[in-house]
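From the pipeline queue, job 12 of 40. The input is one protein chain; the requested action is below.

Action: predict structure.
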Amino acid sequence: VDVLRDRVKSLESTLKGFKKETLTDHYIREKIIGIASESPEPPKWVIENKSTQTKAVPTLFISDLHWGEVVDPSQIGGVNEYNIAIAHERLQALVNTSTQLLDIIGGEYPGIVLALGGDMFSGSIHDELTETNEDDIVPVFLDLYEKMIWLIESMHNIHGKVFVPCVTGNHSRTTMKMRMKGRNFTNYDWLLYCLLDRHFKDNSNINFLIPNGPDALFKIYGTRYLLTHGDAFRGGDSMIGALGPLTRGNHKKSSRNTLIDQSYDIMIVGHWHQLIQVQRLIVNGSLKG
């Protein structure tokens, strides 16, 4: 009896450890979602230019959709309005405008880079958002999931090949406070990206880069890009606004990445809801306005 009791105790301990180890991000990606445990390297057509006709790869940077958030024009002097119906219209306009701009520029392209910079959802990180969002997170999630499938299919139909690097934002988190450890695995952005990756996994012309950390590093024809959401950069003042913390943060991140052999040339970020284009830094606007 003592031997059997010890055996049961040992097996229970082993089973407990097994359950703890298997419910990891790798297990979720491979077994539950059904995609590879590690994101692949960027496709060769993004990194190398072997065509004499091709001179560039276009990038469409999408972030800060804040899907589900409501902006009431009567509360802000009528300067803006936002809800899911308007978000649908603006996303359609985004695709149309980017396509028209590339038609005006002309030239041949091997594909397009579709960078997703986080804050895809309004989220429920504040009581104010919980009370004023148009709907609960699950219906909002499903609505955006369908629209993102449409968007990626549209880019594929127009450009032939699509490379999708992705990072998470702060609004889509499931925790009250922002976390560094396990940031992505408690975030609806990451879940959205993984489900999109699974949806297109049989299409070799659509490739995703979904890192486990907050940054995505990739190259376009030798130029090294670092995609990050931008919520890690704080500070600023009334004179220079976001430019101060972004410039300082970019310098610190660049110095750190150089030490670990992950240097980059240009950092692209969202979060700040305003377009900034300066040397070594591109900041995105927001669909919300």
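Job complete. The mean pLDDT is 88.
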